């Protein structure tokens, strides 16, 4: 861990807790800052805040009093989920107080270089692949960010020869100042999180922050199949490394003659790769680019790609039973992700979908539902999804109350050779706390089928 004096004897407000806020507060305290933590949850219901209080950190809980801005804070470190229209955050911006996220702190103290991955879809799979490939090469890789541990905590023990592999959301990337990954990856860019960012232009700008501090010595891996993304990326100072599933990418990764290539080197045949789906081929090309630039051997890459079947809750193979293959794609919380999942299979599909109603429709799924023989719905959006399925010509639509019922019904309406796919196209919060909980219940229900 680097010894920095940036925050020593400076007043810093940590806004919002959860794991990243606790880690940020403790790190800043260790760095000699005068830390105040402000969290909306009352103190008597807030064990994290109680722990910080025991460490001698000032804690204010139960509300976000705007008067905090009069306390002379020189920095604010906010939880990524707190929007910029929060009065304290917008007030700080108006006053010129820098607003950071915990990722910036992690970068400032890390001895190890960063490989940063962002994008609308595919971040988790790409990050996981990179991490596994580096480890397969018998080198140390630290998994951090949205998957793995809190970055500002795990980098405290990182060494120069390690690799910090970090998944980054647009929310996190809005709160950086000096953060500079040696290798940056953007998997793709579609419209998303507009309720947070306001416009697709602001969303794209947040994503492109991943490369804003890169120099000619760094690499920026970009999806060359998205022309608008390549145009946005052209402003970088880093060396652009393109990847493409449909065209030659001589300076990056592509598919030629049934093989994955990096530059002029054949890495692995497509037939050997066990991870299903065209969208995952994009993730594989991005990951191969990142690890080849890091000096990882082809043997390590092949070892991972011939064994890795998917990230938990992301087109994850669960089991084959009575001729049916079950896949858990609970992380598909929007139609874009569900399109990718539907596109990954040629077999007839029994689709399980539904969840929180955010006001959107589902008709953009229709062109991807030609293989869907039955739709099993649940949650607030059940009726909307049924309407879409009828338009798509799906003959069987069954409304269920919960995941256990949905799995039973899906099996009842399936045949040997079918894929039974949970890909909800919705957030989980109407019935389940997280998409992970929803996926775990699906997995359990699949394994208890009789």
TrEMBL record:
Biological processes per GO annotation: cell division; cell wall organization; peptidoglycan biosynthetic process; regulation of cell shape
Tell me where in or outside the cell this protein is found.
Cytoplasm
Q: Which residues form the Mur ligase C-terminal domain?
A: 313-426
- Which pathway, per its entry? Cell wall biogenesis; peptidoglycan biosynthesis
Its keywords, alphabetically, are:
ATP-binding, Cell cycle, Cell division, Cell shape, Cell wall biogenesis/degradation, Cytoplasm, Ligase, Nucleotide-binding, Peptidoglycan synthesis
Instruction: Report the Gene3D superfamilies cross-referenced here.
Output: Mur ligase, C-terminal domain, Mur-like, catalytic domain, NAD(P)-binding Rossmann-like Domain
What is the reaction catalyzed? UDP-N-acetyl-alpha-D-muramoyl-L-alanine + D-glutamate + ATP = UDP-N-acetyl-alpha-D-muramoyl-L-alanyl-D-glutamate + ADP + phosphate + H(+)
Which Pfam families does the UniProt entry name for this protein? Answer: Mur_ligase_C (PF02875), Mur_ligase_M (PF08245), MurD-like_N (PF21799)
Q: List the InterPro entries.
A: Mur-like_cat_sf, Mur_ligase_C, Mur_ligase_C_dom_sf, Mur_ligase_cen, MurD
Respond yes or no to whether keyword Cell cycle is given for this record.
yes
Binding residue positions for ATP: 119-125
- Enzyme Commission number(s): 6.3.2.9
* Gene Ontology cellular component list: cytoplasm
The Mur ligase central domain covers: 117-290
Q: Which GO terms describe its molecular function?
A: ATP binding; UDP-N-acetylmuramoylalanine-D-glutamate ligase activity
Family, per entry: Belongs to the MurCDEF family.
Q: What does this protein do?
A: Cell wall formation. Catalyzes the addition of glutamate to the nucleotide precursor UDP-N-acetylmuramoyl-L-alanine (UMA).
- Which named protein is this? UDP-N-acetylmuramoylalanine--D-glutamate ligase
| Organism, as annotated | Bacillus thermotolerans (Quasibacillus thermotolerans)
